[in-house]
Amino acid sequence: MTASPWRLAAAELALALAVIGGSVSFAGVLRGYGWLYPVAMVTCATLAAAGVARALRWHPVPVALAGLAGWTASMCFLFFRDQSIAGFVPGPPALVAAREAAVQAWDTVLYETVPASPNVGTVALLTGAIALLALVAETIALSCRLPALSGIALLALLTVPAMLKPESIGAAGFAAAAGGYLCLLAAAPPEGAVRVPERHRDGPRAAPTRLAAAASPARIAALAAGIVAAALVLAQAVPGFDRGLFPEGSRLGALGQNVGLNPLISLGSDLRSATGVSVLRYATDSDRPLYLRTVTVDRFDGGTWAPTNRDGQRQYPLDGISPRLSLAAAPGTRAATTAVTTGGFTSPYLPAPYAPVSVTGERGRFGWDPADLSIKGEPAASRDQSYVVRSVMPVITRRSLAAAQDAPRGISSAVQEVPRGVPDLVRDTAATVTQDAETPYARALALQSYLRGFAYSEETPAEDGYDGTGMDVLETFLEKRTGYCIHFSAAMAVMSRTLGIPSRIAVGFAPGTATGRTVAVPGAGELPEFAVDGGDAHAWPELYFEGLGWVPFEPTPSRGVVPDYATSEDAGAGASTNRDVPGDALSPESAAPVPTATPTPTPPAGDGTPDARPTSGASPVLAVLAALAILLAVALPATVRAVQRRRRLARGLGGIWEELEAIGTDHGLAPRPSDTPRTYTARLAVWDGRDGADGPDPPGPAPGDDGSVRAALATLTREYERHGFGRPGYTADEDAARRAVELIHRAGKASQAPLSRARIAAVPPSSVAWLARPFTRLAPAAAAAGTRARALWARVTRRG
């Protein structure tokens, strides 16, 4: 039968609905919805071109080429019109422009934060990829007549936002894609709806192919079970993924240190993949430990923290940055000059100490954000930069913080909002820990001291499945009492907001390690140099105090440096806990480590030290599961052989003869296709005389037999032939046949050397062959598919 043009048009429309509706899920990967128009236009043009060719009854290959031509023309018209011939025909200038757009898109994908800027490169890449996926789905559904299989292309479309967006796909995009897919299944011609010559329409149906015959429900269920098992194993084997096969926001860590694609989630991957190789270096005249920040994360929706995009508000140039710090409650300011060499560090942000006043020596166009003073340029603009930052900060003391009790004024509501769904454990913990604190500063100190009693671990959150910053993650973190800087900073920031203290999270680098060298900085002289590597990637919370501004704290144990104002009165100032290595603090006074007081409501995990890393309980469990899996794999062939033997002997003469053939296969005398029962038993007679070599004798022989292998073979052959070829009504002596098989089995074992006998018992060849049978049957199906593909190609080339 032939599908009508109206049905084909309905299928094309349903596919367009599924693809364009599914692309709505990219909202949040790119900012705004301006990119949706070119996606819809190019997708519709591609499918329309293929649909017109299909309505003209062209061959499937020219139909696909027509769709590709529509894709090319629409892409040129929308993105490279000025460089194209007549506005839609690609030429050499259009190819050059397309290459530049691809480079821009690649840099954005690697180094931008989500949601990324919808520049020409990213929109062109997204549009072209989605339209090509639509063409692939159209070819599968209509040319190959496999509409159900076209869902793979739609699944690929939804995978990208599921990986990049913290909130995953979203209900709207999934519903639109699913609805369009169901409409496609209803409208597309069914499988096999192909033209059949008139003379064959009423003839007998062809026999099913081997591939169709092999698609039994049991084998389909086994295939599905294998796929699920492989997915579960692969999820644990692929490096760089933390939860499941494609956890939201995860990616491989081979792309270099950066803060793109959600900086907090990337930070976890960077810490776990740190190799100790220097990322950047800096020299400074600061007498206090210096943090280098890249981006500030201030927006929390309950599922994740993310930076607020303010690219439209950035100001230029960098030699006149106005910090707008609140100095009313500060006794003075502290200035510093820092020379930074980024080397291979790749990010759109320039690392700089807070709060920068001016930046000189940078290459490229960078702007500064008046709200958080972050310095941002084009994607990957930070690579191989050398610049000097002059910064100033108010002198913050315990007294000034204790006096800052006024309500915050003139700051964004985003840093004060407490999202819905805060778990009771988070609220109750914050209230319990700070119940004796009377000022915001005292509450902040209590939260920091409580969290510093936890244990630091980069692996436990990923192994136990609570890596991230969502509400459920914070609740689990407070229960497990172990994590790394993301969990500590997010927990303190959220609990601070529940107490009425505005908060945000700074992402960047901890102070690093002194190299012992000095660097000549113009206007500042020779300054000591420090190296920062991937292990120094860090996140820390900042709390807002009216009259002082944003004040950093350090709740993460064994990382960073506790500020002077955040230590207890008896702990001393500038105590460094950066990796617990003496001398990591920048100030000369702190060359010897000073213990930091960390009072907690309950004792810390581990041995009580700040850097104690508890052994995860998952490791022994995984080891036991791995050992059990190995034991099961080793015992599987022998178990299958025992089960098959019992079932065959219980089935009667047919099963008993199958058991005889399995015995021969195990011991090197497998039946041949040309063997008759008599010729096969004649070959097994070589075991005669070895029936008593192994263990006690079996039950007595059948009447008239002498107990030898030849007599047992003769009995079994006689009963099998009479059962299969004798007169109707003959009752076979199954007991005699079973005794004969048992004797033959013992003789076969006796014919083997002890080592071979043990190998056959552990891995019986007959059961191994039975287990491998489904896979060996795939070879003829694959060969048949290859033959059909070659015939189709020859047919296409002849027509061409």
Automatic annotation (TrEMBL):
TM helices/strands, residue ranges: 37-56, 63-80, 120-137, 144-163, 169-190, 211-235, 621-643
Signal peptide feature range: none
Keywords in alphabetical order: Membrane, Transmembrane, Transmembrane helix
Residues covered by region (Disordered): 561-616, 688-708
InterPro entries: Bact_TGase-like, Papain-like_cys_pep_sf, TgpA-like_C, TgpA_N, Transglutaminase-like
Domain Transglutaminase-like stretches: 477-557
Pfam families registered for this protein in UniProt: DUF4129 (PF13559), TgpA_N (PF11992), Transglut_core (PF01841)
Protein's name according to its UniProt entry: DUF3488 and transglutaminase-like domain-containing protein
Organism of derivation: Sinomonas halotolerans
